[in-house]
Amino acid sequence: MSKFLNLFLALMIIAGCSPKKEDGNLVISTENGDVIYNVEEAQKPEELEKGLMNREQLAENGGMIFDLSKVDNQVAMWMKDTQLSLDMLFVNANGKIFFIKEKATPMSEELIIAPEPAMAVVELNAGDVEKHGIKIGDTVKHHFFSDYNKEIYEADGKLPPREETAMPEEAEEIVDEVSEVPTAE
Question: What pLDDT was estimated at residue 184?
Answer without folding.
Answer: 53
